[in-house]
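sorry to bug you again but im stuck and you know this stuff better than me. what follows is a protein written twice so to speak, once as letters and once as structure tokens for the fold. id like you to explain what the token line says about the fold, in plain words if possible. anything you notice is useful, everything is just below.
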Amino acid sequence: MKKFHVFLDLNDEENWINAIQEGGYRLDWVNPYLHCYTFQKLADADQFNPYTRLDFRDRGMKRRAYQDYRQLFSDSGWRLIAGSRHGGIQYFQQKTVASDRDIFSDERSRARSRRRFTRLSLYYAVFLLSYVFFYWQTTDDLNFFDVKSWYLTPGLWQMQGEWFWKAVIFETPFALMRVGVFYVFLIVGLYNLCRVIRNYRRLG
């Protein structure tokens, strides 16, 4: 079973995953870039519904350091099901029912993980929205909120009938290329800003 869901908060994501797992499923894989989650139905022979916990690393690790990081959790009864040594969200799942139900020793450790998540989201928001503002201010011949300005064919909007539609269809891919980066950066920047606001309120 595949599900798509976008979260602003790691705790909300963790709770959502575990709520589905309590319904008789096990998380098998996550694509954090597409926000796609793959769950497997538990077989009758499975002894327990595992818990999934999330850690966040805002910096990359060397290969050996990442192996030690994974081994530390493995020794505590948790296996990594999705994550990268280059940073980001690390998804850990109970290996046995005897494993502790949390990967953090105390609330301070959990809060540090959430602060790393918030801090990196802030960096992305500032960078992306700064680019959007700079691009908007320095592009005089393009109005990002006026679709007609995206097209450069002279007299396009005075054309009629078949010639108009042929010209629009031909130039639309080029028009989208001209404004695509702006809108991608704007959307992702606002998304990260929302993550910062949501997490700042919870951590504050």
Observations:
- The longest helix spans residues 161-203.
